[in-house]
Specification:
CATH topology of the domain at 1-127: Serine Threonine Protein Phosphatase 5, Tetratricopeptide repeat
Number of strands: 0
Shape: elongated
Distance between the termini: 44 Å
Mean pLDDT: 92
Length: 401
């Protein structure tokens, strides 16, 4: 799309010969309109506006004068009244294609995309090739913009409908199909989303985001092998796409191929050494592979970039596995202030204090851990073991998330 040019590509012939304008208009009104033309050409917009207003007073059917008012009001940045002037011109002259186009352009500029759609649809209805088809370009982009607005509002069905309209207007727009796929996926219409992503890729096989989005869809629907292939294509299309690498690693972890996940994430750290999320993901993969020393190093690098409660919690888990319980306590205490990581951090604190022999403090943290059903049984078992050391109890893992 050539959006940056769309507002300047069309300089419509506002100043038409006076005799043509005067056709069907009173001579007095036509004269005032001509005076307004001359003033507009000299960039005396306020004076021109006065002349156009007088022309309308002399003949309320002077559609050209209303259109000229709109142009002058736009120059004076009175956009509300400019829009009304264009509407008056089209109401007087229902086939006034130039006024419909300028009305649509103003509505588009004001981000009134639904209104702009109606105006450009009217232009196309009157003459599809008007101004070399610029109305179709505007209309296509109005669909995309309105679709984006609905998407931000999380109204995914309406967003999909707008993107669908854009694809019908221009079946060769890969971006429109990509956006349609995203909206359909969020609306849980996975088959339709897959069709849209695959169409985007058919139109542009180097469209890395579309390959990645297709991979995300396959990951969501449990089609791991297809997800891996899609992510690999995304990375080939864009070597810097670490989102594809991170998601590819997640799939590898799901199918217990931690070594491949680690390799993918190590490459991601080379691509962007300053992304803490990549470092943390690498740490998680290493921890899942029981490479706790390496995992701890990865978490420490993530924390050095950004102090995040999740990274502190996961570092605490690694410290605990390495039996560095005091360091685990220090790290876990930096996570307890987070609503998301508060409970698992308290579980790790319970483990560390238990191992250090501080049973009372361990119980205190385990009690906090029972607030989440994921950890409830484990924490209750640990409390029972501390209070009844001769009793049984089945130990469960503490990493949880």
């Amino acid at each position: 799309m050539r959006l940056r040019h769309l507002f300047t590509v069309l300089m419509l012939p506002l100043f038409i010969a006076g005799t043509a304008m005067a056709q069907g208009v009173s001579p007095e009104s036509a004269q005032k309109y001509t005076e307004g033309q001359d003033l507009f050409k000299k960039r005396h917009f306020q004076e021109a506006l006065v002349a156009f207003e007088e022309a309308v007073k002399l003949d309320t059917k002077n559609a050209q004068a209303y259109r000229a008012q709109g142009k002058a009001l736009e120059k004076l940045r009175n956009l509300d009244n400019a829009e009304e002037a264009y509407k008056m011109a089209t109401s007087i002259k229902p086939d006034y294609i130039e006024a419909y186009f300028e009305l649509g352009a103003l509505q588009y500029k004001r981000k009134s995309f639904k209104d702009a759609q109606g105006s450009f649809q009217k232009v196309i209805q009157l003459n599809p090739s008007f101004s070399e088809g610029k109305a179709q370009e505007y209309l296509e982009n109005a669909y995309l913009k309105q679709g984006g607005a609905f998407f931000k509002q999380r109204n995914y069905p309406k967003a999909a409908a707008q993107y669908e309209s854009a694809t019908q207007l221009n079946p060769g727009n890969s971006t429109a199909f990509y956006n349609l796929g995203l909206a359909q996926q969020r609306a849980r219409k996975y088959s339709a989303a897959q069709d849209a992503f695959e169409t985007a890729i058919d139109l542009d096989d180097t469209y890395g985001k579309a390959h990645r989005a297709l991979g995300d869809l396959f990951k969501t629907t449990g089609k791991n092998s297809k997800a891996i292939l899609a992510y690999e294509k995304a990375i080939r299309a864009d070597e810097t796409d670490n989102r594809a690498r991170r998601n590819l690693a997640i799939v590898y972890q799901k199918i217990n191929q931690n070594s491949k996940a680690i390799a993918v994430l190590q490459k991601a750290t080379e691509i962007d050494p300053k992304d803490p999320r990549v470092r943390a993901d690498l740490g998680k993969a290493q921890s899942d592979a029981k490479q706790y020393k390496s995992a701890l190093a990865s978490y420490q690098k993530a924390i050095a970039i950004k102090s995040d409660p999740e990274y502190h919690y996961r570092a605490a888990v690694a410290y605990s596995e390495l039996k560095q319980f005091k360091s685990g306590i220090t790290s876990a205490n930096k996570a307890v202030g987070s609503s998301k990581w508060k409970v698992p951090a308290n579980v790790i604190l319970g483990d560390c204090y238990r191992e250090l022999g501080d049973k009372e403090t361990a119980i205190e943290h385990y009690k906090k851990g029972t607030a989440d059903r994921i950890y409830k049984k484990y924490c209750e078992d640990q409390i029972d073991r501390i209070l009844n050391p001769m009793g049984g109890g089945e130990e469960a893992g503490t990493e949880g998330q």
